[in-house]
Design goal:
mainly beta, 4-stranded antiparallel sheet, globular
């Protein structure tokens, strides 16, 4: 896989909740879980299954940081 994004978080799919059009895919990236919302068609095309390997790929131009007062 060649992509321009530098934030690739490999992990294991721990949950897929399918909706009418989109699915929420949960990926355990080593103790933390990242949730992605992707189309049901993408889930099928990628062959995503609970227990399978997948990577969360983060591509953003901005990352905001906040703190509690």
């Amino acid at each position: 896989m060649k992509i321009s994004a530098r934030n690739v978080l490999p992990g294991i799919v721990v949950g897929i909740v399918e909706g009418a059009v989109t699915s929420h895919v949960r990926i355990d990236i080593g103790g933390a879980v990242v949730t992605a919302s992707i189309t049901n068609e993408a889930v099928a095309e990628l062959g995503l299954k609970v227990g399978g390997r997948a990577s969360a790929v983060v591509k953003a131009s901005d990352v905001m940081v906040g703190v509690d007062d």
